[in-house]
Design brief:
CATH class of chain B: Mainly Alpha
Order of helices and strands of chain E: HHH
Helix content of chain E: over 70%
Largest interface: B-E, 52 and 42 residues
Distance between the termini of chain B: 39 Å
Structural class of chain E: mainly alpha
Strand content of chain B: under 5%
CATH topology of chain B: Helix Hairpins
Shape of chain E: flat
Number of strands of chain E: 0
Number of helices of chain B: 3
Shape of chain B: elongated
Chains: A mainly alpha (487), B mainly alpha (108), C mainly alpha (678), D mainly alpha (495), E mainly alpha (79)
Structural class of chain B: mainly alpha
Radius of gyration of chain E: 14 Å
Radius of gyration of chain B: 18 Å
Number of strands of chain B: 0
Strand content of chain E: under 5%
CATH architecture of chain B: Orthogonal Bundle
Number of domains of chain B: 1
Largest sheet of chain B: none
Oligomer: heteropentamer
């Protein structure tokens, strides 16, 4: 590998897709747009997987900082945590693009859609590769901005309302986040090169306040409980966008930020000495249970899946917040598995919607005969999300359950189990209806396009295969937990 | 009580009267008159700052040692010119407003 | 060559799965061949398994398999798993043959494919070399069995299936937590004895795992899905479910017991609990069976009862420790026997159902003349389950009886056990007398005059099973020495103990005597029962555990669906206010004050509603208690059952119960108190 | 040599202003060309002067060769250079933009007058920046104020006349306050030359008279800068003036109030009494930030939105100044730059829309982004900068303001800054929604509205401002070449 | 100097009268009187040049402007 390119790879990986995304706006031909979008995603994934061997050895790839103004500089630093998140995003990005080709075929303003899609995922990757707080914040906010046009793509009243909510929630969160970023820099830390960058001599109440604003700031994006309302609303957007929101970039990035805060900004010891780990865990637990319970009550398929995301993302938070090695590994692996499964589930919902126009769970009777392959994938993905053994979901759940035990907080094990149970109860009825209930109208078998089936199966089967061969992500997760918690 | 301080007080009173006119009288012309009253009061103040008990005008004459300070007078002179400009502008606006609305009155 | 040999366990387990895929692909075109294909694959698997016999038993060697991809995925083929696997594949072969003629038309493709997957799962469970692998197959089996249960897609089937699924998920989860704790304490999941763990850990792990297994095995407080699910499945599927699938739970409990407590003598909650649960299951389920009209439902209750025997045996094994070899052996023996005769019974009833379309025993009769072969084999199987000498059930029951006698409890406890054992046997006998009397003997109803014997493919499986039943009944040592003793030896029982029971001897006076007691008591019971129509008694609904579970589920659903507390909590979001603030026309000094007050008003309203709802639900639950506990007990206990049933609001809300008698909880208490005497 | 440019850069525009009426009798376009040339000259000389400041730090010119305290001095230092560069470049851009705009929207007879007033405005501001004693400051203050009143009223509509009259009343009161304050200061020290004044005041105890003088002047400049309770004239004046004038008023003229405040606070008072003044003014600025943004949110007229937004944005600047810390001041100055570029680009864009399409309500703007894509891209860049998105200058300024507030331990001020930027974002998004994400408005004939081509005379200034905004946004560090020494110099004056 | 003490109350009274006179033309005329008195005060304070200027500008030009403006608008001040 040639050294200079490799050294600046993170910068290129973020900015080449962004430039390609901007080019898309100028292009009129649909074919060229798709080519550019696909090219961007392939470049992203290719570059990231090129880094994998290096990073998985525990090394770190850092670029030289680019100063924009005093104290404000762009700095990329790829560690295992960032690479893990980035890889998931990039991999699913490719398949999101493939899905979008068919899904958006008859929509208008496709140039805008392709452009913002590319920009959004690229900035999501930018967040994960960021090496300091400012860079992280920059891409974090850009992600929100670029996702907004995607959310309101339909331009209907409902879409605008959803967009409004999205905007209100996320930008309040980002204002708080900026506050905490500035505060942290004021206290003297910005680069993620060590565990716990804050001085421990500060007054504890100040630090608690800082953590609180951090959690609120990132928590909006991670959809933790009282701040989750935008996520289900945004389910009105086109399916590739919901996939982007739920699995590809947005929510993941929120939780990524929280992990950075817990481990890089504060550090486990400081958090424990402040006594704030309990708060985080409780927040996660409440979100978990509430998300699941509300999901039980949803009839709209996408909304149900959205609430399921609310619940599942806080598994990750719980895993990260118990401050134990297994918990962290579990959290990261769960994130991967959730991303794969949720992408598949949302794509299934999209394919069903496009194929038959059904959007509600109660209308899905007999869907197993109409679109058998889609529903089979849906079932596999549901089982993966529940955590049935051979899937990656099981592996993650295994580690996640270990976390509270190692941290001597076994009560949260109960919450995890309850939530898993609820997860089964809100996902399995869909399968049940599809395969075991008869439809009201006439049932015809429908041909589903391969543009739909490929991404759907990649998500579902990918989750399954990764359960059997978890090495690529497991190694990264182990490296992360070793670097943060010392083995 | 010195003349200076006495005049300061008078200037302030006049300023307030002018201010009241600007704020409270509805007629535009009245408002402009108010501005003029304020201006003259400020000039009065400036001149009384420069004046000195027993001083004579700042014109060099033999045998006069005690002049009033000329600088404020220069200031006032220039300000006076500007004030006339302002008044003219304001009056022309008032007339225009009257013509285009049909009433020279304006509340607020 | 070695590697091929080493991966043999994997092939044994996966072959049916390959078959299922093949079936799916080929079945698209050759719809009629699906059953044959299924049979073919089961047959190949059976032959494959049998061909390993010399390797396992002569060289006394276990074949282990470790997945190269996922090192935690391990299988092993040792004498114990071989015995079970052989049993499974044999019965599966018979049932497959039966289903060839039975399952025709809609849903048969699904049935054949998923029965193959279920076979893989069951084989996998018995082959698993650690808890993790066990869990994987266990879970697969849970979901696949669901598909078999709801094969007919009728309302009852779906309802029963849902209940089954909920119970299975609960069970799997607790099992998983158990494994998880096990891993946490030991750092591994293999079946190596983990005796060094602290007692509390052992106990909690065992209880958690045990709940998972007990759900599947249908041990009494957790059996609620079983009497609903087994009857609604197609007959061959019921045969598999009752004959084999629930055995996985028993096997699991045995495994957990051996791994956690080894051969140590466990005089603790564990052995006592197993003993109690076993006994309660035996007794209660058999009385429930007596009250049934539906033949398959009756058989399902018998399954619970027979599983109770096995659990009791396991309890004894735990109780006796190193000397408990006979108890374990007897349990396994009974496992074998029950698999055989229960499969045979279900197939026989299935044959009758195929010809008559009727499962209500009271509407059948006199079929012995129309379907002589089926009748014959049904009688053989019934003799087997009732423990009639010369049939296989007798042997295992006698062994279990001996074990009970060797427990050395206090006289009161011993006496109680004795009474329970005898009366269970008697009730079993009685209920089968009833079954045979009502279906095979007596006057034949008009509508069944034209009934013919089923074709040979349907008779042959019952024939084969009956033959095995008789063989084991006549030569019990064939099974004991051929399969069970090596397995027990493999499990690590010491040679002196092994030598003590190198062959089974069940023809003692004591055994025969107890059978006579059973016979007399059973016939008397039948006489009294049929005379006074005691078999048609219906108890009030609230006696049933099932009723309470469904009632609870109903209430929970009510809370979730009726826009109550959660809805109110959802409403208290600040978003509308912020939206109002930001987006609408914002007349700052006028409207905003209004919007803020509006926000406060909403907040207060939301809180008020939430509080009101919580209070209401509390009030509801009180009135519920008042209404359904106190008043209903009062009315139903004293009033005539039928009237109170009609009057009850519950019967409006939840319908479709077959009334059950399950005062199990009371009895458990009574029994524990009794056993604590010694 | 370059010292002479100091006086020339003021006098050339003022002198040209007198030429225009004469020449335009025969030559129709005289106003435009002369004004552009004069402003180009002052822009060029401003560049030269900034070069001189970069070398020497402070350059001064004594008018007529008389040294102070008797003569009049004009000087330029770092802060002045920063403002001078802004003033000359923006006025040039606006002058170029006005060519087409004025022809389309004003009566032909008023065109020379427009350029005269524009030149007076620019020259007045430049003089205000350069003035070395406070009385000259007052004179130039009056010059540019008067011309701005006239410019607001130039289109002659009743509403704009009323707005202008209101502006005039407030402006006159403000200038009288300044005069009064100057009188008080003079009565205390006997001099008007700023360094001497500072010296004399430094000796005196901090008495009620000084306090009163300071308060008078600061309030007066507060009126000019449209600080919150004194901002009532701004929305009307800025929204009803011709768009290029609005651009100049919002972009520059209100900044002159800020510049005056800086002069008084640092050059004259030397930071005395900063705590009490700071507490009061930062409270006012904080209120301005929030209230201005809230008012902007409720408006439906695009220029009114921007006008209210100016109230909010100027609050940031003033907040930054009254934080009296390195980061606060830097943030404030950066915000001056950001707001000047962004807001004038926005007003110019609005001017294009109003002059080409003839409407200004948000509903009518629906879908305009698809008709005028490039214009609207610049528009959006400016909006993003206003809303302090990342990679814009606004972000850097808000960052430093936040930092400054935190440094002083005033968390609530940091909160206000962020809340304000959130609200700003909301109205920006509201506008963007209408522009890009709504179905196009329907014209008279029933089809989509069509828009004529935009002249390059209009596009070029907007493009330059937009690219400037982008450049400064991506590399805000560039502006620190001037800002950093400026702020350090200011802080050096604090005693 | 003592003249000032005599003139100043008069000045104040005239200012008040200007403010409260309804007839605008009358108010303007009173205002011109105000300017004249002011000029005298300034002269007394040692600023004769300013006094002259005030007579010319304040009482002259300004008042003419006012009169013209009043003629072109209205004499009534509606309260």
């Amino acid at each position: 590998m040639s050294a200079p390119i490799f050294t600046y790879l993170p910068v290129l990986l973020v900015f080449i897709p962004i430039i390609l995304g901007m080019l898309i706006f100028l292009v009129q031909k649909e074919g060229v747009r798709i080519f550019l979008a696909l090219l961007a995603s392939l470049i992203g994934f290719g570059g990231l997987s090129w880094m994998w061997p290096t990073i998985s050895k525990g090394l770190v790839l850092a670029t030289r900082p680019i100063f924009l103004a005093p104290e404000i500089f762009l700095y990329f630093r790829v560690d295992a945590l960032g690479l893990l998140f980035a890889l998931v995003s990039a991999l699913l990005w490719i398949f999101t693009v493939i899905f979008t080709v068919k899904y958006m075929e008859k929509e208008s303003f496709k140039g805008r859609f392709w452009g913002f899609l590319t920009l959004a995922v690229a900035s999501g990757i930018g967040v994960t590769l960021a090496g300091n707080l400012i860079t992280l914040f920059f891409f974090f906010e850009m992600l929100t901005v670029f996702t907004y046009p995607l959310v309101i793509h339909g331009e209907t009243g409902a879409a605008m309302a959803a967009g409004r909510k999205y905007f209100l929630y996320l930008f309040v969160g980002e204002a708080l986040l900026l506050f905490s970023v500035v505060f942290t820099i004021f206290l003297g830390g910005t680069v993620f090169d060590k565990v716990g960058m804050l001085p421990t001599t500060q007054s504890p109440n100040l630090l608690r306040f800082l953590l609180f604003t951090f959690v609120l700031g990132f928590g909006v994006k991670a959809a933790i409980f009282p701040l989750h309302r935008w996520l289900p609303e945004a389910a009105i957007a086109p399916t590739p966008v919901t996939a982007l929101l739920h699995a590809d970039a947005v929510v993941n990035v929120g939780i990524f930020g929280l992990i950075r805060v817990i481990y890089n900004v504060f550090g486990p010891e400081l958090i424990q000495s402040l006594g704030m780990d309990g708060l985080l865990i409780w927040v996660a637990t409440v979100t978990m249970i509430f998300g699941s319970v509300i999901a039980l009550r949803q009839d709209d398929l996408k909304r149900r899946l959205a609430y399921s995301t609310v619940a599942h993302i806080s598994y990750t938070l719980l895993g990260a917040a118990v401050l134990s090695a297994s918990g962290l590994v579990g959290a990261l692996i769960h994130l991967v598995s959730h991303a794969f499964m949720k992408v598949s589930l949302f794509f299934c919902a999209g394919a069903i919607d496009r194929g038959t126009g059904k959007k509600r769970v109660s209308e899905l009777g007999g869907m197993g005969y109409r679109q058998p392959l889609v529903m089979v994938a849906f079932t596999v993905a549901s089982l993966g999300l529940i955590g049935v053994p051979p899937t990656l979901g099981f592996l993650s759940k295994w580690y996640l359950w270990m976390g509270p035990l190692e941290a001597q907080q076994s009560i949260f094990l109960g919450a995890l189990i309850l939530s898993t149970l609820l997860c089964a109860f809100y996902l399995l009825p869909i399968t049940y209806r599809a395969f075991f209930k008869h439809a009201e109208g006439p049932v015809e078998r429908q041909r589903t396009s391969w543009f739909y089936l490929l991404p759907i199966f990649v998500g579902a089967v990918g989750g399954l295969l990764l359960g059997v061969f978890p090495k690529p992500f497991l190694i990264l997760a182990r490296v992360v937990s070793e670097s943060f918690l010392g083995g | 009580m010195s003349t200076g301080n006495f005049l300061y007080g008078v200037a302030m009173l006049l300023f307030l009267i002018g201010f009241y006119t600007v704020l409270a009288r509805p007629s535009l012309i009245k408002k402009i008159i108010g501005i003029n009253i304020m201006e003259t009061s400020v000039f009065l103040f400036l001149i009384s700052v420069g004046s000195r008990r027993g001083g004579s005008a700042p014109i060099i004459l033999s045998g006069v040692k005690d002049y009033v300070n000329p600088l404020p007078q220069v200031v006032v002179l220039m300000a006076m010119v500007i004030a006339v400009g302002t008044t003219a502008l304001a009056l022309s606006m008032a007339v225009k407003i009257f013509e285009s609305s049909g009433a020279g009155e304006r509340r607020g | 060559m070695e590697s091929v040999w080493g991966s043999l366990p994997l092939w044994i387990a996966v072959l049916p799965f390959i078959g299922a895929i093949f079936l799916y692909l080929a079945g698209q075109r050759f719809k009629n061949l699906r059953g044959h294909l299924s049979l073919l694959f089961v047959g190949i698997d059976f032959i494959l398994i049998l061909s390993v016999y010399p390797q396992i038993f002569r060289e006394h060697k276990a074949i282990g398999y470790i997945s190269p991809f996922l090192s935690i995925f391990q299988l092993s083929l040792d004498p114990l798993s071989f015995s079970l696997v052989a049993l499974v594949s044999f019965i599966w072969l018979a049932v497959s043959l039966f289903s060839l003629g039975y399952m025709v038309g809609g849903g048969s493709g699904e049935y054949h494919a998923f029965s193959l997957v279920a076979l893989m799962a069951v084989l996998g469970i018995f082959l698993a070399a650690n808890f993790f692998t066990l869990f994987i197959f266990f879970d697969i089996l849970g979901y696949v069995a669901y598909i078999l249960i709801v094969n007919s897609r009728t309302r009852e089937a779906l309802k029963a299936g849902t209940k089954y699924l909920i119970m299975i998920i609960l069970g799997d989860l607790t099992f998983l937590v158990g494994i998880f704790l096990f891993y946490y304490y030991t750092g591994g999941v293999a079946f190596t004895p983990a005796l060094h763990l602290p007692d509390s850990a052992k106990l909690s792990i065992f209880l958690l795992m045990g709940v998972g297994f007990a759900v599947k095995a249908g041990v009494i407080p957790l059996h609620i899905w079983l009497p609903d699910a087994h009857p609604v499945a197609p007959c061959p599927a019921s045969a598999l479910l009752s004959g084999l699938v629930i055995k996985t739970g028993v096997y699991g409990i045995a495994r957990a017991l051996l791994v956690l407590f080894g051969m140590a003598k466990v005089v603790s909650v564990v052995s006592l609990l197993l003993l109690c649960l076993g006994v309660v299951s035996m007794l209660l389920a058999v009385f429930m069976a007596l009250l049934q009209r539906n033949a398959k439902r009756m058989l399902a209750y018998h399954s619970i009862s027979q599983v109770g025997y096995m659990i009791m045996g396991l309890g004894c094994a735990a109780f006796l420790g190193k000397e408990g070899m006979l108890a374990l052996g007897a349990s396994l023996f009974h496992l074998f026997n029950h698999a055989l005769f229960k499969a045979c019974l279900f197939l026989g009833v299935g044959a009758i159902y195929l010809r008559t379309g009727e499962l209500d025993m009271y509407k059948l009769g006199g079929l012995r003349k129309k379907m002589p072969l089926t009748a014959l084999f049904l009688i053989v199987a019934a003799c087997g389950i009732s423990g009639v000498p010369l049939f296989n059930g007798y042997v295992s029951k006698a062994l279990l009886h001996r074990v009970l006698a060797s427990l050395g409890l206090s006289p009161a406890g011993q006496g109680l056990l004795e009474i329970v054992f005898i009366s269970t046997g008697a009730a079993t006998l009685c209920s089968f007398v009833k079954l045979l009397r009502l279906t095979l003997f007596g006057r034949i109803p008009e509508s069944y005059r034209e009934v013919k014997e089923v074709p040979f493919t349907l008779v042959f499986p019952t024939l084969a099973l009956a033959a095995v039943i008789l063989t084991i009944g006549l030569f019990p040592n064939l099974l004991w020495k051929g399969l069970l003793l090596p397995s027990l030896e493999y499990l690590g029982y010491s040679p002196p103990v092994l030598a003590q029971f190198s062959s089974v001897e069940v023809w003692g006076a004591h055994d025969i005597g107890s059978f006579l007691w059973v016979l007399i008591l059973g016939l008397a019971m039948y006489a009294v029962g049929s005379k006074y129509k005691l078999f048609e008694i219906s108890f009030p609904q609230w006696f049933s555990v099932n009723y309470w579970v469904e009632r609870l589920a109903f209430d929970l659903r009510f809370v979730f669906q009726e826009r109550r507390v959660f809805e109110a909590l959802e409403e208290i979001q600040l978003a509308p206010e912020l939206k109002y603030l930001a987006v609408r026309e914002m007349k700052f000094f006028e409207e905003d004050v209004e919007s803020v007050t509006e926000g406060v008003r909403r907040l207060v309203w939301g809180l008020e509603r939430a509080i009101k709802d919580i209070l209401l639900s509390i009030k509801d639950s009180f009135s519920f208690l008042k209404r359904y506990c106190l008043r209903e007990i009062w009315e139903k206990f004293l009033a005539r059952p039928a009237d109170s049933l009609a009057a009850s609001r519950m019967s409006e809300r939840i319908e479709g119960y077959v009334v059950e008698l399950e005062f199990g909880l009371f009895l458990i208490l009574v029994f524990i108190v009794a056993c604590l005497f010694w | 040599m370059e010292k002479h440019f100091l006086i020339l850069t003021v006098t050339v525009p003022l002198a040209t202003a007198t030429l225009i009426p004469l020449l335009s009798i025969r030559w129709e376009r005289a106003g435009f060309w002369l004004a552009s040339l004069a402003l180009l000259f002052s822009f060029g000389s401003a560049l030269i002067l900034v070069g001189g400041v970069l070398v020497d730090g402070r350059i001064a010119y004594h008018v007529g060769g008389w040294a102070p305290p008797w003569g009049i001095e004009i000087f330029l230092d770092w802060v002045g250079a920063f403002f001078l560069l802004l003033a000359s470049s923006l006025s040039l851009a606006v002058a170029i933009f006005s060519r087409i705009y004025v022809e389309q929207n004003l009566e032909a007879s008023k065109i020379p007058l427009f350029y005269v007033l524009l030149l007076l405005l620019a020259g007045g501001m430049i003089g205000f920046i350069l003035a070395g004693d406070i009385f000259n400051m007052f004179i130039f203050f009056e010059i540019f104020s008067l011309s701005s009143y006239a410019l607001v009223a130039i289109s002659g509509g009743l509403e704009s006349l009323k707005a202008s009259f209101r502006y005039l009343l407030m402006g006159t009161i403000s200038s009288l306050f300044v005069l009064l304050g100057i009188g008080l200061l003079y009565s205390l020290t006997g001099t008007l030359y700023m360094p001497l004044l500072a010296q004399e005041l430094g000796v005196l105890p901090y008495s009620g008279a000084i306090r009163a003088a300071t308060a008078l002047i600061l309030v007066a400049f507060g009126i000019e800068a449209a600080l919150f309770p004194l901002h009532v004239w701004l929305p009307g004046a800025h929204s009803l003036a011709p768009s290029p004038v609005s651009a100049l008023l919002s972009g520059l003229v209100i900044k002159m109030g800020v510049y005056g405040m800086i002069k008084v606070l640092f050059y004259i008072l030397g930071g005395r009494g900063s705590s009490e003044i700071g507490a009061l003014f930062s409270l006012m600025a904080a209120t301005a930030i929030i209230v201005g943004a809230l008012f902007a949110l409720r408006e439906n007229d695009i220029k009114l939105i921007f006008a209210h937004s100016s109230v909010s944005q100027i609050g940031y600047v003033i907040l930054g100044i009254y934080l009296f810390s390195y980061f606060g001041l830097a943030g404030g100055l950066l915000q001056v730059l950001n707001h000047a570029l962004a807001k004038s680009a926005l007003f110019l864009c609005a001017g294009v829309v109003i002059s080409q399409a003839g409407f200004r309500r948000l509903e009518d703007l629906r879908g305009i982004g698809r008709r005028m894509p490039f214009l609207m891209v610049f528009f959006t860049i400016a909006l993003a900068s206003l809303a302090s998105l990342p990679f814009t200058c606004g972000f850097a300024s808000k960052y430093y303001l936040c930092k400054g507030a935190i440094e002083r331990g005033e968390f609530w001020l940091a909160g206000i800054v962020l809340l304000g930027s959130f609200l700003t974002l909301l109205y920006c998004v509201k506008i963007v929604n209408y522009i890009f994400f709504a179905t196009p408005a329907v014209g008279r004939g029933g089809g989509e509205r069509s828009y004529p081509e935009v002249s390059p005379w209009m596009m070029v200034p907007i493009g330059v401002l937009g690219f400037g905004s982008l450049l400064v946004g991506i590399f805000p560090g560039l502006s620190f070449i001037l800002i950093k020494p400026a702020v350090l110099g200011l802080l050096g004056m604090v005693r | 100097m003592s003249l000032i003490y005599f003139l100043v109350p008069f000045l104040l009274v005239i200012a008040v009268a200007t403010v409260f006179t309804r007839d605008l033309l009358a108010a303007v005329i009173i205002f011109s009187a105000y300017s004249l008195i002011m000029a005298v005060v300034w002269q007394q304070l040692g600023a004769p040049v300013l006094a002259l200027a005030e007579v010319a500008i304040g009482a002259g030009v300004t008042v003419v402007l006012f009169v013209v403006a009043v003629c072109r608008t209205t004499r009534e001040e509606k309260v």
